[in-house]
Design a protein that fits this description.
With 469 residues, the protein is mainly alpha-helical. The protein contains 19 helices and five strands. The strands form two sheets. The protein has a three-stranded antiparallel beta sheet with strand order 1-2-3. It has a two-stranded antiparallel sheet with strand order 4-5. Strand 4 (118-122) and strand 5 (125-129) form a beta hairpin. Helix 6 packs antiparallel against helix 8 (200-221), helix 9 runs parallel beside helix 12 (317-336) and helix 9 (236-272) packs parallel to helix 18 (434-461). It is globular and about 95 Å long.
Length: 469
């Protein structure tokens, strides 16, 4: 085989989660009372913008979760196939120029020369200047003419982004018209005038902006380092995109660990009360009294000691980094469920005294049936909003933990490691600002989209908001 598939633990978990989400979508489509709130999410402008932005991040994360090892050239006289120890992903293949075009050291965004002066031989004379980059702007006959070349490429990419958006719009109009048995002109006028149930104009505007940024980054990234390079000459745009998977893993896998504990213990404590409530309160009060950073640091350092003492258990560096990422998600999940558990306990204490719950108990309905049919559905809006907000907090927590040295493996590309390496760069003169800025902007867009999505979901699933509509 030309490649050997590699299944990391986090890859298995994230695709398992994707399968569960797919099954959930199929189930929701068959239930009108569940489908209605989600349709409301898609009718809000903020909702569709957040979903489209999050879809881009998720797509990059999934492509970066398909790992493999390339086959090495066959040795003469041997039929045995050996594979490279370096684990790649499908995303690495798609962005090969960004991954392979490594410079000597720092270079600014769109630069054609290094950021630092060096001694170099020029026309037989030894001079102290800025050496040209090996890849950035090498296609230019005159490096000083780079801005006209960049402007031309931006105009070309923007044109194709517009054409692609119009083509997608035309295909969707034709498809919708054929299903509704209406003329395409009538459907197009209805959409452009904003008479549709869904915010079609917002959808297409967001799609155009996404394609505009994507096409320009793809086109310019082949000829320039759009966001510059770091100390070892690696493209900062590649690092920013590669960090998306790490951020998504921290947010989603930690939520998977935290959510069952919070829901089961919170609802049980609020509904059954008594000695069970006392035990659960004692557990989460004790956990809250332990400094979270110290607990995480101790657990991660213990795992690191095990990894160093048992190198034979990990075939590649990617597997070592992956097990540390998984362990970090587990520790974060164990330490972050207490807040949601406390909220669900308080809300369950109120719901258990509601008339419909009292009536169900008077009729002899089983307690677990009451929890499943009456308590849990009325807590879903709280669970959803808390989960998405916790996701945002966990993405930011990874940056903080990596900054203090107890986050993901230093060899794994993440926003936290980018920020950690940029702290010394900010003390330089002139300042190397682009690594920190790229990590900040990438993280900011993801967290902002998640928070907007959480806000819309809360409005859609909150029973009081539904009653007011």
């Amino acid at each position: 085989m030309p490649f050997l598939p590699v299944l990391l633990w986090t890859d298995i978990l994230i695709f398992s989660l994707l399968a569960v989400i797919g099954a959930g979508v199929f189930y929701i489509q068959r239930k009108p009372h569940l489908r209605a709130p989600w349709l409301h999410v898609f009718t809000r402008k903020r909702g569709v913008i957040a979903i489209m932005v999050l879809s881009v991040y998720v797509s990059i994360g999934l492509l970066d979760s398909l790992h493999f090892r390339s086959a090495l050239p066959a040795q003469s006289g041997s039929d045995e196939v050996h594979y490279d120890s370096h684990v790649k992903s499908v995303f690495d293949v798609l962005v090969t120029p960004l991954h392979t075009q490594v410079e000597k050291t720092y270079s600014a965004p769109f630069a054609t020369r290094l950021f630092s002066r060096e001694m170099q031989m020029l026309d037989g004379n030894l001079t102290h200047g800025y050496p040209p980059l090996r890849y950035g702007g090498r296609h230019l006959a005159d490096p000083d003419a780079k801005w006209s070349d960049i402007s031309e490429r931006i105009m070309t990419s923007s044109f194709w982004a517009l054409v692609t958006t119009l083509a997608i719009m035309a295909l969707m109009v034709v498809e919708f018209s054929s299903r509704q048995k209406k003329s395409t002109i009538t459907t197009a006028k209805k959409w452009l005038s904003g008479e549709s149930v869904f915010p079609v104009r917002t959808i297409y505007l967001t799609l155009f902006l996404i394609l505009l940024v994507s096409f320009n980054l793809i086109h310019l990234g082949q000829y320039y380092h759009v966001l510059g390079t770091d100390k070892v000459g690696q493209d900062v745009l590649y690092q920013s995109l590669k960090s998306i998977r790490t951020g998504l893993m921290i947010g989603t896998l930690t939520t998977l660990v935290m959510l069952p504990l919070a829901i089961l213990l919170g609802i049980a404590a609020g509904y059954f009360r008594g000695w069970l409530d006392d035990i659960i309160q004692y557990i989460y009060t004790t956990l809250n009294s332990i400094p979270g950073v110290l607990l995480i640091a101790a657990a991660v350092l213990m795992l690191q000691v095990y990894i160093n003492n048992h190198p034979e258990s990990f075939a590649t560096a990617a597997e070592r980094a992956d097990i540390r990422l998984l362990f970090l998600c587990l520790i974060l999940g164990v330490t972050s469920w207490t807040g949601l558990c406390r909220i669900l306990r308080g809300e369950t204490l109120k719901l258990r005294e509601s008339e419909y719950v009292l009536a169900a108990r008077a009729l002899g309905v089983n307690g677990f049936t009451i929890l499943h049919r009456h308590i849990l559905p009325n807590l879903m809006h709280i669970i959803l909003i808390t989960v998405v907000l916790d996701f945002s907090g966990l993405v930011l927590a990874e940056a903080v933990l990596s900054y203090v040295g107890v986050g993901v493996d230093p060899t794994m590309i993440s926003w936290g490691n980018m920020i950690n390496s940029a702290r010394l760069e900010m003390a330089r003169d002139p300042v190397v600002w682009w690594s920190l800025t790229a990590a900040f902007i990438s993280m900011f867009i993801l967290v902002l989209a998640a928070n907007l999505f959480a806000d819309v979901v809360r409005d859609a699933f909150d029973p009081r908001m539904q009653a007011s509509r």
